[in-house]
Amino acid sequence: MKALALLLALAAAASAQSQKGLFTGSTDIGKTEPGNDRYDPVTRSYYLTGGGADMWSTSDDFHLTWIRLSGDITITADIYPGEIGSTPLAKAVLIVRQSLAPDSAYADVAIHRDGHVALQWRENSGGLTRDSTAPRRFFNTLRLERKGDIFTAYAQGPKGRFDHPFASYRVPMTAEVYVGLGFCAHDEDGLATATFTNVKIDQPH
Questions:
Q1: Which CATH number goes with the domain that contains 42?
Q2: Which keywords fit this entry according to its UniProt record (predicted)?
Q3: E strands along the chain, which residues?
């Protein structure tokens, strides 16, 4: 009987993990309509539905699915922002965040529904968000790299390579951070949905 109970518990844990894919948590941050996320294990796709006025200035409003990790990290994905019901400035992001507070320090690489791509960052809690924009629009395959306190944004170039970063900035954070996928509808009263596929998180051994 104990063996059966253990097997059932392990199966339930495996099922819960498969529903989130690589991630372990899901949070609405800031002022937003209730969002959600869904993982499709067949297509290995994540569907994030979120609201929120923006991820900008001194605080953020968006939906985040996350895992806590320490050290150097690279997260890569194909991103299709705001496919359902969103405004031109809806943004889907690969993000590393110090905390789940709306005014947390963070760095992300973001693609907006109008196609423009940027590295965004907030150096400290409650500070202003700043950004550096990629040279062209509609890069859908993006990468964010953390090495120490340096965050670097890449867009996939010719032959599928990430040879040339388009922006880099220093954002001090403690070792353990929240790493994940985020989506902001750029609509404080509504919701929209973005799709992330081929998501990979890599760490040096």
A1: 2.60.120.560
A2: Signal
A3: 25-29, 36-40, 45-52, 55-56, 59-60, 62-70, 73-84, 91-97, 106-112, 117-122, 129-133, 141-147, 150-155, 165-170, 176-184, 187-202
